[in-house]
Amino acid sequence: MDQQKLKHRRQLRRRHHVRSAIVGTSERPRLTVFRSSKHIYAQLVDDINGITVASASSRGKDVRSSLPYGGNVKASQVVGKKLAEMAKEKGVMLAAFDRGHYRYHGRIKALADAAREGGLQF
After folding, report:
1. Contact yes or no for 22/8 (Cβ under 8 A)
2. How many CA atoms lie within 13 A of 113 on its CB side?
3. Which of 37, 92, 115, 119 could make an SS bond with 80 (beta carbons 3.0 to 4.6 A apart)?
4. 73 Cβ partners below 8 Å, 6+ apart?
5. Record: fold of 3-117
6. Where are the domains of the chain?
């Protein structure tokens, strides 16, 4: 099998394994993270109603103006704090962290720690 297809299949298996135990509700939405090589994206999702409560990314106008590059730990920290602020405005204080198929280190950990400092609990 092609190496890229094998890698993608492993990522899907890990993602399904992580998400099988996590369900976002209106009281405790799922904080999901997507990481690309140049940017990082995070959103709070209510799976029961099928809506996105809040979202933030390193591509946003307010974040992009303060950062020269969106694919590093510093950008992840800014995105985590921004997401926590938006969640507070919506009245959300609890979240279930969904790391997807990424390991909990580096940019993913920085985003989670910044969201915790901003007031989200998971």
Report:
1. no
2. 12
3. 115
4. 106, 107, 110
5. Nucleotidyltransferase; domain 5 (3.30.420)
6. 3-117
Residue spans of alpha helices (H) in 1-122: 3-19, 61-66, 73-90, 107-117
Whose tokens are 């609890």? That residue is 94
Tell me the two tokens of residue 117. 């400092």
Taking the chain, what is the end-to-end CA distance rounded to the nearest angstrom? 39
- Residue 62: band (very low, low, confident or very high) from pLDDT cuts 50, 70, 90: confident
> Which structure tokens are listed for 105?
């280190």
Are residues 76 and 84 in contact, defined by beta-carbon separation less than 8 angstroms? Answer: no
Residue 80 has pLDDT above 90, yes or no: yes
The structure tokens 């985003």 sit at 111
The single-letter code of the amino acid at 100 is G
